[in-house]
C-alpha cells in the first residue's frame, strides 16, 4: 500500500529559511577557504614543499564549487555536502595533533557548519521549486 505524500511547506515558510541557509553556507564556505589559505601561507611548516601546489590541492575542490554556490544552484550545494566531508576528516585528524589542534577543530567545525547549511538549503530549495511548479 502506497503512502500518501507529505504536503510541502508554504512558500512564506520556505523563503526566509532559504535566505538564512544560503547566507550561512556562503559565510562558512568563505571562512573555511580563508582558514586554509591563512594556515598554509602563515603558519604551516611545509618542509620545502611549494606553497602554491599545496594551496591548489586544498583549495581546488572549493574553487570548483564556488561559482555554483554564488549563483545559488541547489545541485552545487548538494555537491558541497559530498566534498566538504574531506575537509571534516582532515580537520578531525589535525585536531589530535598538538601543534595543529586549533586548526583541526576550526576546520572540523566550519566544515560541519557548511555541510549542515548546504544540506538544508538543498532540501528547502527543491521543496520551494516543487511548490512553485504547482505540486
From TrEMBL:
This is DUF2069 domain-containing protein. It holds the Pfam family DUF2069. The lineage of its organism: Bacteria, Pseudomonadati, Pseudomonadota, Gammaproteobacteria, Pseudomonadales. InterPro entries: DUF2069_membrane (IPR018643). The keyword Repeat does not apply. The chain crosses the membrane at residues 20-39, 51-71, 78-96, 102-121. It comes from Pseudomonas turukhanskensis. Keywords: Membrane, Transmembrane, Transmembrane helix.
Amino acid at each position: 500500500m502506497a503512502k500518501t505524500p507529505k504536503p510541502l511547506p508554504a512558500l512564506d515558510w520556505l523563503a526566509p529559511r532559504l535566505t538564512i541557509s544560503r547566507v550561512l553556507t556562503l559565510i562558512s564556505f568563505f571562512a573555511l577557504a580563508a582558514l586554509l589559505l591563512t594556515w598554509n601561507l602563515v603558519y604551516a611548516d611545509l618542509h620545502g614543499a611549494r606553497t602554491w601546489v599545496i594551496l591548489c590541492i586544498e583549495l581546488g575542490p572549493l574553487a570548483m564549487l564556488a561559482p555554483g554556490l554564488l549563483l545559488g544552484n541547489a545541485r552545487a550545494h548538494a555537491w558541497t555536502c559530498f566534498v566538504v566531508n574531506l575537509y571534516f576528516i582532515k580537520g578531525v585528524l589535525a585536531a589530535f595533533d598538538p601543534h595543529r589542534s586549533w586548526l583541526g577543530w576550526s576546520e572540523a567545525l566550519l566544515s560541519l557548519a557548511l555541510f549542515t547549511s548546504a544540506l538544508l538549503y538543498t532540501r528547502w530549495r527543491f521543496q520551494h521549486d516543487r511548490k512553485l511548479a504547482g505540486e
